């Protein structure tokens, strides 16, 4: 039997993306002070990294138009990496000015998805991100590159693994500290995850790989486990399961932070996260965003959160025992 | 790396419980002819076993008050086992009269849960089921016993594994053909599943074990994989993910048949199920029950069900390419 089911204290680093990937999809604007309080709560819950915000154009993503204030005013808890999405040079300058610990750049390994989402060819994106990486290096700020559609493109279907690895190679050559392999629309499945992850870790040992899964087809947690089995130790997840899938209305988006932490802790992995504090933060989300969150742990509690017996339990038992005599 | 991620054609038998476990929780009465058509569609989709209905009191579960007619009038596809829930002697007589292939009996390994749900002590349930088993043996009808709360009780918390195995032993001694280990409220987690499943299969090799998981806390598919790793080859699942959890309103209930089949087929397991036919059947459920179903596959489709490019894609690409020159 596989040893994957027993973590034996293996450390898994959890990266929270709900504050960026989740909130940017919300139609309402979460007040700046609430965003700051949320990031502070997540910092104290023990997450390894928090994607705080996105330094995109305020007109493109008004929900995150307060990026500078949030990044400047959050508490900086030692050991936590405060990252932010940066689409271009202007965003990088803003993020560096706001003392962002790490710049998270994004492009897609699918040509169709890159053109549809970023309005550039992949080569144009690569050239633009190369400039951002050079700027970050000058400023001494680490860079992570999130590669979208690594496990499939919602328009093209499967993306050749050679294409994925070619971009990983090119970014590794540019000296990025981390690469996130993103399952953008929930197309990843365990043997594919195990194969791609183990190859990436073997080929670029100096790069910190993060795996980013969506639970769109119910395989999120199993993909996390397959990636751990292949050597991955760092995962993106979203508080409350915030962030849907634009291609499948009503379907799940990002894997849910408290579901992944709950499951990994049940299995004996050490996420370093205080699950109670994380669940408390997730339970405050509906007030912030005005609707329920997908999180199953918010709905059902932890596995040993027991329920009271029915009010008439003693009477039921008495009647049962009376029949026995 | 574990071999669990690659099925290599290993045969997994899928047992559909939506027609009983799912429909019995629906407030509406699904017309008898629609139930029959649904079971027939599931038969032709290649499921190994279908829990067609429940021979309970029509006043207790009016949604299944047409148990006899449904069981008598469904098409009997060779190779498919048509089972039904039977709570007592009266139910067993009705089920046998209606030519049910297998009687599925239920009791809980948690004393509190058994009293609260079945209004009997576990010993009273065991004595009653022993009589049913004797009747079934006389009639030459196989028996499966579903043990509730094997992986935890929503009121007691963890149930001692020695209690689980003591009941397995007693039913094995009574000569039952199968035992289903049920995670009644989604408390199971992979290392526990692997441990209990491997012990059960080793101790009672003549008993066909089925694993029954709920996805209440998002661990359903991972528990299926842990059980397969421990030697299990037969699983309950519910079409559309029908059947909620009375202890967690809004949370998932049974693992969803088409999600499990989709995932297992992606991983190279052979479920014998025609996924397209299964998804077609699931997509007809909302019309039958009057509300959407939890199934992520119904919402998002299979992983390679691609989407069209945006309507303005060609213009976006032209503009991008024009910038390049």
Using the CA coordinates, give the radius of gyration of chain A: 21 Å
- Largest chain interface and its two residue counts? A-B, 77 and 77 residues
Q: Biggest β-sheet of chain A: count, sense, barrel?
A: 8 strands, parallel, barrel
Q: How would you state the average pLDDT of chain A, rounded? A: 96
What is the terminal-to-terminal distance of chain A? Answer: 47 Å
How many individual helices of chain A?
14
How many discrete domains of chain A? 1
What structural class should be given to the helix and strand makeup of chain A? alpha/beta
Family (chains A, B): Belongs to the HMG-CoA lyase family.
Protein name (chains A, B): Hydroxymethylglutaryl-CoA lyase
Domain Pyruvate carboxyltransferase (chains A, B): 12-279
Keywords (chains A, B): Lyase, Metal-binding
Describe this structure in words.
Two copies of one chain form a homodimer. Chain A is an alpha/beta fold and 325 residues long. In chain A, 42% of the residues lie in helices and 13% in strands. Chain A has a single domain, classed as TIM Barrel, CATH 3.20.20.70. In chain A, α7 links the parallel β5 (143-148) and β6 (178-182). In chain A, α4 (89-97) packs parallel to α6 and α8 (190-203) runs parallel beside α9 (220-229). Chain A is globular. Chain A starts with 12 loop residues before the first strand and ends with a helix. At the A-B interface, α5, α8, α9, α10 and α13 of A face α5, α8, α9, α10 and α13 of B.
């Amino acid at each position: 039997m596989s040893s994957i089911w027993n973590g034996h204290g293996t450390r898994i680093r959890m990266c929270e993306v709900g504050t960026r990937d989740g909130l940017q999809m919300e139609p309402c604007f979460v007040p700046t002070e609430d965003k700051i309080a949320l990031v502070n709560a997540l910092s104290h819950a023990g997450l390894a990294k928090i994607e705080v915000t996105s330094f995109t154009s305020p007109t493109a993503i008004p929900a995150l138009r307060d990026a500078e204030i949030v990044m400047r005013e959050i508490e900086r808890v030692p050991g936590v990496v405060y990252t932010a999405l940066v689409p271009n040079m202007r965003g990088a300058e803003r993020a560096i000015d706001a003392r962002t610990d790490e710049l998270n750049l994004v492009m897609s390994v699918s040509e169709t998805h890159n053109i549809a989402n970023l309005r550039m060819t992949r080569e144009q994106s690569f050239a633009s991100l190369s400039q951002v990486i050079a700027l970050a290096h000058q400023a001494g700020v680490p860079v992570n590159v999130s590669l979208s559609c690594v496990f499939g493109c919602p328009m093209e279907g499967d993306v050749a693994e050679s294409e994925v690895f070619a971009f990983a190679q090119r970014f590794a050559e540019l000296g990025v500290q981390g690469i996130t392999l993103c399952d953008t629309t929930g197309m990843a499945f365990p043997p594919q995850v195990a194969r791609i992850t183990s190859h990436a870790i073997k080929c670029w040992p100096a790069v910190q790989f993060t795996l980013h899964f969506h639970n769109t087809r119910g395989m999120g947690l199993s993909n996390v486990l397959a990636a751990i089995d292949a050597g991955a130790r760092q995962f993106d997840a979203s508080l409350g399961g915030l962030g849907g899938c634009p291609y499948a209305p009503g379907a799940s988006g990002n894997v849910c932070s408290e579901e992944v932490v709950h499951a990994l802790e049940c299995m004996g992995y050490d996420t370093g996260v205080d699950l109670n504090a994380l669940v408390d933060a997730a339970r405050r989300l509906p007030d912030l965003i005005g609707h329920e969150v997908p999180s199953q742990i918010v709905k059902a509690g932890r596995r040993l959160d027991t329920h009271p017996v029915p009010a008439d339990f003693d009477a039921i038992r008495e009647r049962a025992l009376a029949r026995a005599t």
